[in-house]
Amino acid sequence: GDCLYVVDQGQMNCFIRQSDGCERKVKECTAGDAFGELALLYNCPRAASVEAAERSVLWALDRESFNNIVKKAAVAHREQLEEFLQRVPLLQTMEVYERSSLCDALHPVTF
Q: Does the pTM of the predicted model rise above 0.85?
């Protein structure tokens, strides 16, 4: 897959081919839904085929633009985490590399 698609209008049906050769509908995408991101994220073939169930309008985002957006978001998130960790007194004596490694291990927990 080379694009992420966002449905603006209409309905798209997603099908996966079963081991017996038959296709099974696994998802319906309507306005606001997106598909194709997994093929872009993991650089692999699409896992499903998608067909328009009715006249539809979609927006396409190419692989390069998608990757740039994802990378920029990841960099911004990492910078936010690093700034947070620099304010934690216990962690202020850590080297930059150590704090950076800690950023990779952090995940949010909600109580």
A: no
